[in-house]
Amino acid sequence: QVQLVESGGxxxxxxxSLRLSCTASRNIFSCDHMGWYRQAKGKERELVxxxxxxxxxxxPDSVKGRFTVSRDNAxxxxxxxxxxxxxxxxxxxxxxxxxxxxxxxxxxxxxxVSS
Length: 115
What we know:
This protein is an all-beta fold.
C-alpha cells in the first residue's frame, strides 16, 4: 500500500504559476509510475502528467509546454510545476501512484485560476 498527500493548491491569477507536491508514505522508486490527474466540476477525471521510475515524463497536449512533472526519490515526492495557468486549468488535482498493478490516489488539492 501507499498513502499519498498532496499540497500546494490555491487561488492564482491567469498567467501565474503554482507548484504542487505529492509525498508518498513509502519509497516511490518501488512504484511503476506516478502522476497527476485533475477533475473539474462536472467533468471526468483526466490525465495531467505521468513520470516513470527513470523520470520519463508524459503530458497531454492541453498542458504540454506549460506543466512539468518531476520526482525526488530521496524525499518520496513528486512535483507538478504549473506555469502560464489558464482558467480552464481550474480543478481538483490528484496525485496517483501505480504499485503492483493497483492505483492509489491522494485526497486532492484544489487549484483555482481566476482574475
